[in-house]
Amino acid sequence: MAPPAPASALRRHRASLEGILDFSSQPPLDPAHRASAKRRFDQIINHFESESIRPGRDKYDRVKLVSLTYDHSTSEKSKDRLLAAFFAFAGLSITVDEDINFEDPTSQDELRASLDNFADYLFDNFFLPLKASTKKTPQPSPASHSAVTSTQRQGHIFAGTPERIANLRGACLIRDRYRCVISHKFDQAEALKRFGLQRRGQGEARDQDGQPLAGQRFEPLEVAHILPHSLTQLDSGGELNASKEAALAILNMFDDGAAHLIEGIEIDRPGNALTLTQPLHTYFGDFNVFFKPEGTVPHRYHIETFLPQGFTYDVPVTRTLFLTEERNIDPPSSRLLAIHCAIAHILHLSAAGDYIDDILRDADEYGIRHDGSTELHRLVGLHLNNWAGSQAHGNVIV
């Protein structure tokens, strides 16, 4: 763990929190101020990069997490937001065109503390809850055709989460032709249904392309959210809590306006979901499998993994995602897949993903350690902010 931040840095940190989430009224930086802010940001990153992970003090690379979050922002406006937030944490003016002073040891220590605070803010309010809550999309029973049609954009009023997820699964199965979009294995339940009809003399069991199902590969399929349902889950008062609002504000640092893609019931629309086998759902939810656009062909992706060789033989692979002939079910959003890919790389390259896995695994195996080494404040934060629902980790419910 990093040492406590100096008091002045903490005062600036706390003072900056009140306004740091509200970017709606913030004007974009003009080219000169943007170039100056980026130059000074790079000075800070480059200065502390050589001591990114300090043995015994850091569990993940805070400097790299901040730097990578900036690098993976998709637009100038998103990058401006991250720079504005960072300079607010550091107590520095974003419009002053002066080199950063590293000569004064006290100022340097405070600047490093501010950088660490900002990294921890991103970690605690976005990366940790996002990875902790993407372990699995709850799987409802398959939706009927009538339920599937209700997912279309005709002003349908969704009744509740189980119905929405059931509708989502049905819509994705139809759109994805009852196949995992990565492995192309056919849905086992649907195959059994079609073979049953064949035994009753109702024609040969075939897939959506008219090919015989006999000899094909089958596996139970699941609907997987690209960004987790819990990201927009309301509290008991029907409101987003401060933690969820912070996460959505950070999401807009990756892609300005992306939060609107998953507002309310949009989180459970087909544009935020894929059909996957159970193992690939787990790997995708853990940000160990990701989609990168392949060339200029729409909806074509090269699918890769950070997993060691031997964990899955379904990737790497290049796939063009399925579309319905009528185009009445949205394809997976390229913007959301790009955000998922960015998060996967940040978690992997900064070692934050391994740290999160260690936190959850430690709680699952040992509960609360008597020596105080359990990251209890982070586990409690997940529970209190309703990020991981009733998921149990040993003696700690998060």
Q: Could you list some keywords that capture this structure?
A:
disordered N terminus, HNH_nuc, HNH nuclease domain-containing protein, 8% strand, mainly alpha
Summarize the structure in short.
This protein has 398 residues and is mainly α.
Tell me the number of strands.
Answer: 9
How does the major sheet shape up? Answer: 3 strands, antiparallel
Report the average pLDDT across residues. 82
Q: Which structural class matches the secondary elements?
A: mainly alpha
| Number of distinct helices | 13
Shape descriptor reads elongated
The order of strands across the largest sheet is: 5-6-7
Domains (count): 3
Distance between the termini: 21 Å
Q: SSE string, helix = H, strand = E?
A: HHHHHHHEHEEHEHEEEHHHEE
List unreliable stretches of 5+ residues: 1-21, 142-160, 389-398
In percent, how helical is the residue content? Answer: 40-55%
Global Rg: 23 Å
Q: Estimate what percentage of residues fall within beta strands.
A: 5-15%
Organism: Fusarium oxysporum NRRL 32931
Region (Disordered): 134-154
Biased composition (Polar residues): 135-154
Domain HNH nuclease: 219-291
